[in-house]
Design a protein that fits this description.
about 260 residues; mainly beta; 4-stranded antiparallel β-sheet; globular
């Protein structure tokens, strides 16, 4: 029954998710940006607006990874995170904190970028191209991270955070006491989280979460949010993972 409910939400929610937001229905996009590293310089070439945007590498700075998709591009170095999109006049830059390490690669949608370190969830997106940062709390553990063409979502043992290119900033919703995450998915314009108690839906057009309760016995429900959860290692980048038994704590997500 719960599987059917999620499928219906994905189909109907995708149609409404881009409603009233010009351009969000235009997915997937062709690659409109090219990023190259040449002679200690990072170059972005804009296929739509023309021209190039340059950023010099620092002394001893090493490029670890770079990539593009649709309207966005990102470069990860051992010192910084640099992101850009079509129409930008400059690179958006985040300096790494002392001891902070970037992942092996960023997650890219057509209009959003997600980079999750052990300390922060960092997102880029929108017009104008905006930076969004959420610090992770003590003992807060990443359970899943997903990206669709126009949405990004990060799930921890305490909360779910959604990012949209339409509005800046992460939108949060707290997890309940002993609530077990069963699956996380990202489609073009919305993301869904299914737990053993609820289905949570994040829409790109509104940058907000909706909650749908599942029909459960009264003695199994919990009404209050809580940061209580069993730690699991941080996941990497697949777009979805299968459900697992609700009587188990959420396992790590692996490539």
């Amino acid at each position: 029954m719960r599987t059917t409910l999620v499928a219906i939400l994905l189909i109907s929610g995708t149609a409404r998710g881009a409603e009233g937001v010009p351009g969000l229905n235009d997915v997937p996009l062709s690659q409109l940006l090219e990023v190259l590293v040449v002679d200690r310089q990072i170059l972005a070439f804009d296929a739509r607006a023309g021209g190039q945007i340059r950023k010099d590498l620092r002394l001893d700075e090493r490029v670890l990874w770079h990539g593009t998709q649709g309207e966005v591009g990102v470069v990860l170095t051992d010192q910084r995170i640099l992101a850009i999109n079509v129409g930008s006049q400059a690179w958006r830059v985040v300096k790494l904190q002392l001891g902070e390490v970037v992942p092996q690669k960023a997650l890219l949608g057509d209009r959003v970028v997600l980079v999750v370190t052990g300390r922060r969830a960092i997102g880029f997106g929108g017009q104008p191209f905006s930076l969004s940062v959420k610090p992770l709390g003590i003992k807060e553990v990443i359970l899943a991270q997903r990206v669709g063409e126009n949405v990004a979502v990060v799930v921890t043992n305490r909360r779910a955070m959604g990012l949209s290119p339409h509005l800046a900033g992460f939108a949060e919703i707290a997890l309940w006491i002993r609530e077990t995450v069963e699956s996380v998915n990202a489609a073009a314009n919305l993301a869904t989280l299914r737990s053993d108690r609820r289905v949570l839906i994040f829409r790109a057009s509104t940058r907000s979460w909706e909650a749908r309760r599942l029909n459960l016995p009264a003695n199994s429900r919990s009404e209050s949010p809580s940061p209580s959860f069993s730690p699991s290692p941080s996941p990497s980048s697949p777009s979805s993972f299968p459900a697992f038994p609700p009587n188990l704590t959420s396992p790590p997500i692996r490539d």
